[in-house]
Amino acid sequence: MHAEFRTDRGRIRHHNEDNGGVFENKDNQPIVIVADGMGGHRAGDVASEMAVRLLSDAWKETTALLTAEEIETWLQKTIQEVNKQIVLYAESEMDLNGMGTTLVAAIMAQSQVVIANVGDSRGYLLQNNVLRQLTEDHSLVHELLRTGEISKEDAMNHPRKNILLRALGVEGKVEVDTFVVPFQTSDTLLLCSDGLTNMVPEVEMEEILKSKRTLSEKADVFITKANSYGGEDNITVLLVERDLTQKGRDAS
């Protein structure tokens, strides 16, 4: 597997509350993670850092999970435990009250990839030169769009666009979506925070992924493009290709 991770503060925010990286278990099986913290400086930082650290630490202690079913079970159970720990920590620190974080993570299983998500950080797959969003935003605006109360155009600039219906660290139990999709050598997986998707149209994201650039160059272009369109939020991008000859980069 070849992975490239990038995170950037953006042009408006004073701090970067995004986090993520690429981490391996005892059998060198990778997990890739992106988290977007909420609750303001420090609170958002703490929530996203905790989510990534706790999930990756748990993964580092496992041995290889070979089937998609095993991976889904592990993700569901472990993310629930991560959520509980974030909630408990927030309750113990007054200045962290109200913090939370999105989470999107992926683990490879033979010719498949298993995705888990909570919140509005997204997972996409470029397959046969077509970009497809795998995850569903757990946000108020997405729910209004799904029920037909607003149009896609309305959703782009809705004043309550940032209100999440699900996040880690908010309640004692959280509903986690998981997906299993084919993942072939020619495919590219993209995990990202909304600092990318709110700035760069999907048609342009698809063009970047289909280009002849290297994976590293594509990751850099995503950050540059989001900033050129305003960089209104922190921007995090994690790109994955099934290439066993190269290793990826973690958040450090």
TrEMBL record:
Pfam family, one: PP2C_2
Needed cofactors: Mn(2+)
GO cellular component, as recorded: cytoplasm; membrane
Enzyme class per UniProt: hydrolase
Domain PPM-type phosphatase: residue ranges: 2-242
Major site of localization recorded for this protein: cytoplasm
Keywords: Hydrolase, Manganese, Metal-binding, Protein phosphatase
Enzyme Commission number(s) from the entry: 3.1.3.16
SMART domains found in the cross-reference section: PP2C_SIG, PP2Cc
Superkingdom per UniProt: Bacteria
Compositional bias of kind Basic and acidic residues: 1-18
A molecular-function term among this protein's GO annotations: protein serine/threonine phosphatase activity
Lineage per the UniProt record: Bacteria, Bacillati, Bacillota, Bacilli, Bacillales
Organism (species): Listeria cossartiae subsp. cayugensis
Catalyzed reactions: O-phospho-L-seryl-[protein] + H2O = L-seryl-[protein] + phosphate; O-phospho-L-threonyl-[protein] + H2O = L-threonyl-[protein] + phosphate
Name of the protein: Serine/threonine phosphatase stp
Family the entry assigns: Belongs to the PP2C family.
Membrane topology: Peripheral membrane protein
Compartments reported by the entry: Cytoplasm; Membrane
Region (Disordered): 1-23
Classification via PANTHER family: PROTEIN PHOSPHATASE
Biological role stated in the UniProt entry: Protein phosphatase that dephosphorylates EF-Tu.
